[in-house]
Amino acid sequence: MRLNSHIKVLGVLIVICSALFYKVMFDDYLFLSSDSISAKSVSQGIDIANEKYGEYPIWMPWMFGGIPSTHSMQNISEYYFPHQIISAIKLLGIPWFWNFILHFLFCGYGMYILLKKLKLGFYPSLLGASCFMVTPWMVVNIVHGHGSQVMTAAYLPWVMWATIKLKDRPSIRNISILALLIGLQLQRGHVQIAYYSWIVMAGYIIYDYMLSRKIDIRFLSRWIISSMIGICMSLWIYIPLLNYTPYSGRSIPKWINSATDWSLHPYEMLTIILPSSY
């Protein structure tokens, strides 16, 4: 792909983001919702406790009568590698909302790369990238304080692109690329969003098997290696989470609906094929 086409795509995506979020990107405005305030309160509470006692608090008594911090995935942005780099925008006086805009652009550009990999033309790929980036679900989550969900979803086209790339050219380099993308997506800490990537990858593997009527052992083994490395990149988040799970209300059978309210319930898998079927 020519460099000129990449510049055009990024230019169009930036224009779209600017038109949608002009005031919060370039003016003194911000989106304010109950979830945004809650997340900010948790962050401030942890910072105050850290300053007072000189160590990161592992228990938060002010939420639900008391819950652990990291074990319940509260305020875990520091465990997300790109957060360390993106935090530099604060030093430049750039509004923190640009953190989400960068992930929006990453999301749209990733979809463009994926569609080009699937051999679509420039304009269909650009249209698909633009539509995916401004899907109502993406926009409403940003507005209502669920930015980390959008950041997690932004990796979906990239993970799929890397999976196809690994299928086409099995190599250590492509194993590493897929592992890195899986790891970073899991580090963002939204399992109920990240697992859509696994559904898509599994669908691709099944589709590949149906086409060739045989299992590609080379590809499958390399994909498993990439997945395991990616999971290991985020274990410092998920090992504490698994330890806490038996004590969480969402692990109680009668509350299972609560645990799946914000993701695709197994019964709803049919909607992947026919969106209005459930």
3D architecture notes:
The chain has a domain of 65 residues. 26% of the residues are buried. It has 14 helices and 2 strands, in the order H-H-E-E-H-H-H-H-H-H-H-H-H-H-H-H. The mean pLDDT is 85. Helices cover 65% and strands 1% of the residues. The chain has 278 residues and is an all-alpha fold. Strands 1-2 form a two-stranded antiparallel ribbon.
Calculate the mean pLDDT score and round it. Answer: 85
Shape: globular
What is the overall number of helices? 14
Q: How are helices and strands ordered from N to C?
A: HHEEHHHHHHHHHHHH
Features:
globular; 2 strands; 1% strand; two-stranded antiparallel sheet; 278 residues; mainly alpha
Architecture blueprint of SSEs:
Blueprint: H1 3-26, H2 34-53, E1 59-60, E2 67-68, H3 81-86, H4 88-91, H5 98-117, H6 122-133, H7 136-143, H8 147-153, H9 156-168, H10 172-187, H11 191-212, H12 217-232, H13 235-244, H14 256-259
Antiparallel strand pairs: 1-2
Helix pairs in contact: 1-5, 1-6, 5-6, 5-8, 5-9, 7-8, 9-10, 9-11, 10-12
